[in-house]
Specification:
InterPro entries: AAA_16, Cyt_c-like_dom, P-loop_NTPase. It comes from Nocardioides kribbensis. Pfam families: AAA_16 (PF13191). 52% of the residues lie in helices and 9% in strands.
């Protein structure tokens, strides 16, 4: 089949040609936007799931929905080695620019302030500049004094105390007030949210709590690994009520078929029913795998419709590409001791599935079982386990258990062995 017309798009965060199986999340977010626009109380949103289930794609789709309503939006990706101030400042700067200039009114947050719309914007940008530069000392280098594109002078005494929780509450209150005066809203999108530092997580929860109580039109939409709710809960006990949580999982058979068939139909091609069944068996319904296998099968198949035989021929090549780009790139980041721990997890899952359960359906394994499999004391494996968690290769959803962040990673490790 013509590779130029291949519709499938395997890529990190790249939107597939058919965003199947996410209608409920998109509809829920539309309700959130409408309620906030009408001044109704609404919680911020957190998406959780394994890697490869399309969290980033969905996050971008939600952002597009906010943009279509005229909201100011900004997005950042959290990193373990970076504090929140500067990336959040960049995201909020973009959001303020997208809001435009409001008409004359009161100051940010509804209180007294500059009278004209331009003065309000300058005030908020000045507060944003103060917030961003607070981490830089008086004699900091120019590159550490973040203020790209902000001509407004820093506003002293606002969002610059040095306490991230106080500063973030003040900053988001001012940005939310600006949005309210403009008759719009602001949405901040945070990917890899589990990588925020403990102080930043606590500050973000406190700020969302304050914004929710004040009724300002500002929401946070986060995405992260399955243990993100536990990270938030450990920071603030009320986070369980502060956010609306949505677990993003693999697609149902019906949605997976639509993700494959709709793009093929647009290119005057099709799958046989047996071909679709073979694709679901191969991909497990995980969106990234659907795109990866779909692209390879399309290139290998001699003609339409694509059959189960075409899937069988293409599967080894698709698996080789995944082994290098999806699994291998992550495995290479691990040290020898960490790789041993990963293999121990895979072997422990095999032992757990000995009773007849599909080994790839095994979620988490007990850390004690990993230690038994490797013939070592659990305490001696703690450094490797902690390092793997920091690298985002494994996560702990509950005490004493550990799981891969990547679906089918155990299968990959067994095949490598």
């Amino acid at each position: 089949m013509d590779p130029i017309r291949n519709p499938y798009a395997p890529g990190a965060g790249q939107r597939p040609p058919e965003l199947a199986g996410r209608d409920e999340e998109l509809a829920t977010f539309e309700v959130v936007l409408e309620r906030v626009a009408r001044g109704r109380p609404e919680r911020s949103l957190v998406l959780t799931g394994l890697r490869g289930v399309g969290k980033t794609v969905l996050l971008n789709a939600l952002r597009s929905a906010a943009v279509r309503r005229g909201w100011g939006t900004g997005k950042l990706e959290a990193r373990p080695d970076q504090r929140l101030r500067r990336p959040l400042s960049s995201a909020l700067h973009q959001a303020v620019r997208e809001l435009g200039v409001p008409g004359p009114g009161g100051g940010p947050g509804g209180g007294p302030g500059p009278g004209s719309g331009e003065e309000q914007v300058d005030h908020v940008l000045g507060v944003l500049r103060s917030f961003a530069q607070r981490d830089a000392g008086a004699d900091a280098r120019l590159k550490d004094r973040w203020s790209p594109g902000i001509d407004a002078p820093a506003v002293r005494g606002r969002a610059d105390s040095g306490d991230i929780e106080i500063d973030l509450v003040e900053l988001l209150t001012d940005v939310g007030g600006l949005a309210a005066d403009a008759g719009k809203g602001v949405a901040v999108f945070i990917d890899e949210m589990q990588d925020l530092g403990p102080d930043d997580v606590s500050a973000l929860c406190a700020a969302c709590h304050e914004i929710s109580q004040s009724g300002l039109p500002l929401i946070v939409v986060g995405a992260g690994l399955p243990h993100l709710p536990a990270v938030l809960s450990a920071s603030k006990s009320y986070s369980e009520r502060l956010f609306r949580y949505a677990r993003i999982d693999r697609l149902t058979r019906e949605a997976a078929d639509r993700a494959l068939s709709a793009p093929a139909t647009d290119e005057d091609a099709a799958f046989t029913e047996a071909g679709l069944a073979a694709m679901y068996d191969a991909t497990g319904g995980y969106p990234y795998f659907i795109q990866a296998y779909g692209k390879t099968v399309w290139d290998v198949a001699p003609r339409s419709p694509i059959t189960e035989d075409d899937v069988a021929v293409a599967a080894p090549e698709a698996e080789r590409e995944l082994a290098v780009g999806f699994f291998g790139s992550r495995y290479e980041r691990a040290t020898p001791a960490e790789r041993e721990y990963l293999r121990g997890m895979a072997d422990a899952a095999v032992a757990l599935a000995a009773g007849g359960t599909d080994v790839d359906a095994v979620g988490s394994v007990a850390t004690a079982d990993v230690a038994t499999t490797l013939g070592k004391k659990p305490q001696s494996l703690s450094p490797a386990r902690d390092a793997l968690m920091k690298k985002g290769l494994v996560y702990s959803g509950e005490r004493g258990r550990i799981a891969f962040t990547v679906p089918h990673f155990g299968r990959y490790l067994r095949e490598q062995a």
